[in-house]
Amino acid sequence: MKDLIVVGGGCAGMTAxxxxxxxxKSVLLFEAENxxxxxxxxxxxxxxxxxxxxxxxxxxDKLFEQVSELGVEIELERVIGMxxxxxxxxxxxxxxxxxxxSVILATxxxxxxxxxxxEERLTGYGISYCAVCDGxxxxxxxxxxxxxxxxxxxxxxxxxNLCEKVYLIHRRNTFRADAAMTERLRSVPNVVMIMNTVxxxxxxxxxxxxxxxxSVAGGGVSELSVDALFVAIGHEPDSAPFSGNIxxxxxxxxxxxxxCATDIPGIYVAGDCRRKSVRQLTTxxxxxxxxxxxxxxxxxx
Length: 301
Fold this sequence. Notes:
Number of helices: 7
CATH superfamily of the largest domain: FAD/NAD(P)-binding domain
CATH architecture of the largest domain: 3-Layer(bba) Sandwich
Order of helices and strands: EHEHEEEEEHEHEHEHEEEEEEEH
Shape: elongated
Distance between the termini: 14 Å
CATH topology of the largest domain: FAD/NAD(P)-binding domain
């Protein structure tokens, strides 16, 4: 039996593993997709204290090296469930059952979709949720970004260096992005901001050829010719496999305070899957540290 199982290999999960391993605990970490999580798609990380001008991939790589050097076992397996037996927790993967004294769920969140007809069909054929991943395919062409937060602004800035024109479409008349980021984007000549507007439908058979946008105020619909649409409207917590075990809110986020303790002793949550007001790299690693300290300082049984 392990002292701790961490579910999720993003920055919150790896920080939790780091803290637990440094405390001499045996740690097993499961990741279903890519080590590092969402931060790996960030072209630059300028708001993490003490590490300016670092890409998200660089940050994740360095954290992975730290964790690996401490002997944390890392398995690329998808966790599909969990059982609570008091002093013993059972984490169920596609390949087996694994016992531990404590569990930290750092499952993160996945991209929220627009919910439009043909969105699934055109994903990969003009529809994307990662500008860093797919932006190069549209060099010299026209792209649109949907969203009003920092992620959407980062995407638009990144694409402005590749594309001939970039539309930024937001449903409100104010942005959620930082003031500095907003001013920076306003000064980019090939970015056009379209406010109080939503994407109404998609145009294209084999690939995206355009989008129809609708004014929130007047209801009028117009069409924009674009080669790509990058969706940056937030995320949904990846909590479904554990919703029967851990208490969640109406949006599916795990309910836990700053100590990251859930309503079940010995089970903690960390990172973007936890209900909180700020979801940033700094808060993810903070959660990871808090959850790890709680897991070894408050043993069950």
